[in-house]
Design brief:
Length: about 150
C-alpha cells in the first residue's frame, strides 16, 4: 500500500512546487532597463554640464541607479530636486514597471570638472550603473543650451 501512495504524492508535490515557482517567477521578474530621451544641453561653463534622460523598467522588480561615469568629466553625480533645492544623492530608484525621469528642473545628472567642453551636435558617452542590473552605456547627444524636449520628459 505504501508504494502505491509514493507516486501520486510525488506528482502532487512536484505540481505544487512548479505552480509556486511559476507564480513567484512572474511577479518577481528581474528589472528590464532601457534608456530613452537622453540629452545634454551644451554647457555654458567650462567645468559643469547637466544631463537628462529617462530610464524605463519593463520588469517586475525595482532597481536603483547608483552611479554614473563618463570620459568627458572627472565626476558625474546624481542629483535629486525637491521643491527649490537640489542635493547630491547616492542613488535614485527605478520603479518596477515604471520609469525614472531625469529632467530639467527635476532629478538630473551633473557632469563636474569637465575634461573638455562638449559642443552642440557631438555625443557624450556615459555608463549608468545599477544595484541589480548590468550597466548601460548611453550615447548622449549634446543639444543647444536652450533645447526643450517636446516629449519623453
Amino acid at each position: 500500500m505504501r508504494s502505491r501512495l509514493v507516486g501520486p504524492v510525488l506528482v502532487t508535490t512536484a505540481a505544487l512546487v512548479l505552480a509556486g515557482c511559476g507564480s513567484a517567477g512572474s511577479s518577481s521578474a528581474a528589472a528590464k532597463l532601457s534608456v530613452k530621451s537622453a540629452y545634454m544641453p551644451q554647457p555654458v561653463t567650462d567645468s559643469l554640464a547637466a544631463g537628462y534622460l529617462v530610464i524605463e523598467n519593463d520588469g517586475g522588480r525595482a532597481d536603483e541607479l547608483t552611479s554614473v561615469t563618463s570620459d568627458i568629466a572627472q565626476d558625474v553625480t546624481v542629483h535629486e530636486t525637491t521643491g527649490q533645492s537640489m542635493q547630491e544623492v547616492t542613488g535614485l530608484k527605478v520603479p518596477a514597471d515604471g520609469e525614472l525621469v531625469l529632467k530639467s528642473g527635476g532629478n538630473h545628472l551633473m557632469f563636474e570638472n569637465l575634461k573638455r567642453k562638449p559642443k552642440e551636435g557631438e555625443t557624450v558617452s556615459l555608463r549608468l550603473n545599477f544595484t541589480k542590473s548590468r550597466a548601460i552605456t548611453v550615447e548622449m547627444p549634446v543639444k543647444s543650451a536652450t533645447y526643450q524636449p517636446t516629449s519623453g520628459h
